[in-house]
C-alpha cells in the first residue's frame, strides 16, 4: 500500500518535471518580433513598370520539349529589354551564353568582394488559350491583376529586378560588388543554358557569395492555423529520377488469363511500390521550418514542435496525411505511365510502368533504385532514364541568409523568413557546384490562387504584389551595398 503510494507520487513528480521541460522548450521557440517599423518604400514610376512588364508578357517565349521554338520571339526579347531599360544596358556588360542565355554583369566598385547572382528564366510553358479568361499573351492589366503566361513564373522577377536597377541608376547608384543577372531561355524543359552559364563562371574562376533564383515566395498561413505571412526560402530541392519498370510474363493467350501474365505481374509490382512508401524523415531544414512557423502558433502546437525529440513520430504521422507535407518528409514515387499491349486480345510479353520519383536530399539515385528493386521482386527490371541528384542544403546561419531575412522584413514588416526544401525543381541547382549558398525565393506575395495558376490557366499577378516586388529588389540591391560582407 505504502509502496504503491510512493510509486504514484514518483510518477506524478516525473510527469510534472517532463511537462516543465517541454514547456520551457516551447517557450524558447516563441517568435521574437523586431520592433515595429515602416515598410521600405521608394518612389518608382509605377505606370512605366507595369507597361514594361506587360510588354515582356506579350512575347510568346515558349521553349517546347523536343520541338523547335519560335526563335523570333526569343530574338526579340533582349532588344525589348534594351529599349525599356536603357540605363541598365548602358551600365551592364551583356553576355550571351548558349545562344539565348542573357547574362548581365553590373560591375561593382570593389573587385575584392564576392559577387552575387540573381536568376530568373524568360521561357514559359505553353498555354491552352481556350481555357483562359483573357488571352495568355495579352499582358493586360485587368481588375487589379497583370495577366499573362509568365506573370508569376518568372518574368515578374526580370521586370522587377530591371525596374529596380533602372530606378537606382537614375540616382547614380553603383553596387559595391559585382552583380550578375542570369535570365535563361530553357528552364522549363531542364535545358542546357544554365549549365553553360555555370561553366562561364567556372572558366573564369568566379565563385559567387550567394545565388538567388525563383522558388519560394511570401505566402499566407502555410501551416498550423497560423494566420500570418511567411517568406518561404528554398534551401534545397529534391532530385528527380524517371524510373522505368519492365515486367516479363509467360507468353499466352488472352482467352486463358493467368497470374504469370506480364500485365498481371505489373499491377502487383505497382501496388507493392505504392504500399511501400519511402521512410519518413524530419531533416534539419524541415525541423527549422516547422519550428519557425510554430513560433507563432498556440502554446500546445509550440509544445509539440519544440519537442520533436519526443513528438516526431506524431508529427510525421500528421504530416503524412497531406500530400504537400508528406512530400516534405520523404522521397515520393508517382506512377505516371503504363504500357501493355497495343492490341486488346494479346497479352504482351513485357509490360511497362514509368514512375516519377522525387528524391529527398538524404537519398540518392543508387539507394532509390536499389529499394525499388527490392520491393519489386523477380521478373522485373528497373532502370533510370533521367536522373538529377537532390541539391545540397544551403545554410541558414550565415550572412547571406541573414541579408535575405532582413530585406524581407524591411519591405514586408512582420513577415518571418523560413527555410524549406522545395518539392519542385529550379535551374539554381546547377550553381551548387560552385556556390554553397543557393537560395530560391522571389520577393513577391503570391496567393494560393496565383501559385496554382503557374503552369495552369489564367496565370496572373496582383498589380500590388508586382509593385511590392520591385520594392523588394530595390532594397535587396541597397542592402547588398552595406556592411561587412564576404570578400575573396
Ligand atoms: Zn519557373
Structure explained in plain terms:
The chain has 16 helices and 15 strands. It has 488 residues and is α/β, with parallel strands linked by helices. It folds into 2 domains: 46-235 and 393-479, Aminopeptidase; 237-388, Alpha-Beta Plaits. Helix content is 38%, strand content 21%. Strands 1, 2, 3, 6, 7, 8, 13 and 14 form an 8-stranded mixed β-sheet that branches. A 4-stranded antiparallel β-sheet has the order 10-11-9-12. Strand 1 (93-97) and strand 2 form a beta hairpin. The relative contact order is 0.18. The termini are far apart. Helix 1 packs across helix 10 (299-305) and helix 2 runs antiparallel to helix 6 (155-170). The chain has helices spanning 2-28, 46-57, 71-75, 77-84, 86-91, 155-170, 193-203, 262-275, 284-294, 299-305, 308-320, 323-329, 365-376, 399-411, 448-452, 463-479, and strands at 93-97, 101-106, 116-121, 141-142, 145-147, 179-184, 210-220, 229-237, 239-248, 332-339, 350-359, 380-388, 416-422, 438-445, 460-462. It binds zinc ion. Zinc ion (ZN) is lined by residues 121, 153-154, 187, 214.
Apparent shape? globular
Beta-strand segment tally: 15
Task: Please indicate the percent range of residues in DSSP E strands (runs of 2 or more).
Answer: 15-25%
Please work out how many helical segments DSSP would assign: 16
CATH class of the largest domain: Alpha Beta
Radius of gyration: 26 Å
Mean of residue pLDDT?
Answer: 93
The CATH architecture classification of the largest domain is 3-Layer(aba) Sandwich
Cα separation of the termini: 74 Å
Classify the fold: give the CATH topology of the largest domain.
Answer: Aminopeptidase
CATH superfamily of the largest domain: Zn peptidases
The biggest beta sheet reads:
8 strands, mixed
Helix content: 25-40%
Ligands present: zinc ion
Count of folded domains: 2
Secondary-structure class: alpha/beta
Low-confidence stretches: none
Amino acid at each position: 500500500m505504502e509502496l504503491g503510494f510512493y510509486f504514484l507520487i514518483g510518477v506524478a513528480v516525473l510527469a510534472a518535471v517532463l511537462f516543465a521541460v517541454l514547456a520551457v522548450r516551447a517557450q524558447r521557440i516563441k517568435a521574437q518580433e523586431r520592433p515595429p517599423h515602416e515598410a521600405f518604400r521608394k518612389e518608382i514610376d509605377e505606370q512605366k513598370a507595369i507597361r514594361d512588364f506587360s510588354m515582356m508578357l506579350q512575347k510568346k517565349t515558349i521553349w517546347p520539349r523536343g520541338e523547335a521554338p519560335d526563335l523570333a520571339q526569343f530574338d526579340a526579347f533582349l532588344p525589348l529589354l534594351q529599349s525599356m531599360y536603357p540605363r541598365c544596358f548602358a551600365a551592364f556588360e551583356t553576355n550571351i551564353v548558349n545562344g539565348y542565355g542573357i547574362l548581365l554583369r553590373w560591375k561593382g566598385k570593389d573587385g575584392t568582394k564576392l559577387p552575387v547572382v540573381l536568376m530568373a528564366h524568360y521561357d514559359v510553358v505553353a498555354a491552352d488559350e481556350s481555357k483562359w479568361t483573357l488571352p495568355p499573351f495579352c499582358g493586360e492589366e485587368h481588375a487589379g491583376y497583370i495577366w499573362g503566361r509568365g506573370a508569376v513564373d518568372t518574368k515578374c522577377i526580370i521586370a522587377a529586378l530591371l525596374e529596380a536597377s533602372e530606378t537606382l541608376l537614375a540616382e547614380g547608384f553603383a553596387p559595391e560588388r559585382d552583380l550578375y543577372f542570369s535570365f535563361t531561355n530553357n528552364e522549363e524543359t531542364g535545358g542546357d543554358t544554365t549549365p553553360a552559364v555555370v561553366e562561364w563562371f567556372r572558366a573564369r574562376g568566379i565563385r559567387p557569395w550567394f545565388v538567388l533564383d525563383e522558388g519560394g515566395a511570401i505566402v499566407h498561413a502555410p501551416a498550423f492555423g497560423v494566420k500570418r505571412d511567411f517568406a518561404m526560402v528554398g534551401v534545397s530541392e529534391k532530385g528527380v529520377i524517371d524510373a522505368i519498370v519492365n515486367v516479363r510474363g509467360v507468353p499466352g493467350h488472352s482467352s486463358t488469363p493467368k497470374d504469370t501474365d506480364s500485365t498481371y505481374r505489373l499491377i502487383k509490382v505497382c501496388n507493392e511500390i505504392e504500399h511501400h512508401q519511402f521512410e519518413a524523415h524530419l531533416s534539419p531544414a524541415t525541423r527549422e521550418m516547422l519550428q519557425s512557423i510554430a513560433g507563432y502558433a498556440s502554446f500546445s502546437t509550440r509544445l509539440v514542435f519544440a519537442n520533436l525529440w519526443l513528438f516526431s513520430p506524431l508529427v510525421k504521422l500528421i504530416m503524412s496525411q497531406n500530400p504537400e507535407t508528406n512530400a516534405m518528409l520523404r522521397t515520393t514515387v508517382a506512377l505516371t505511365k503504363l504500357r501493355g499491349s497495343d492490341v486488346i486480345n494479346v497479352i504482351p510479353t513485357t509490360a511497362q510502368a514509368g514512375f516519377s520519383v522525387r528524391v529527398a536530399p538524404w537519398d540518392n539515385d543508387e539507394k532509390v533504385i536499389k529499394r525499388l528493386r527490392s520491393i519489386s521482386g523477380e521478373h522485373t527490371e528497373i532502370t533510370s532514364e533521367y536522373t538529377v541528384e537532390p541539391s545540397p542544403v544551403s545554410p541558414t546561419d550565415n550572412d547571406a541568409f541573414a541579408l535575405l531575412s532582413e530585406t524581407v522584413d524591411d519591405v514586408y514588416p512582420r513577415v518571418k523568413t523560413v527555410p524549406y526544401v522545395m518539392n519542385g525543381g529550379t535551374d539554381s541547382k546547377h550553381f551548387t557546384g560552385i556556390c554553397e549558398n543557393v537560395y530560391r525565393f522571389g520577393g513577391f506575395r503570391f496567393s494560393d490562387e496565383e501559385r496554382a495558376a503557374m503552369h495552369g490557366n489564367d496565370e496572373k499577378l496582383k498589380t500590388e504584389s508586382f509593385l511590392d516586388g520591385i520594392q523588394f529588389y530595390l532594397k535587396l540591391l541597397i542592402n547588398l551595398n552595406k556592411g561587412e560582407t564576404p570578400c575573396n
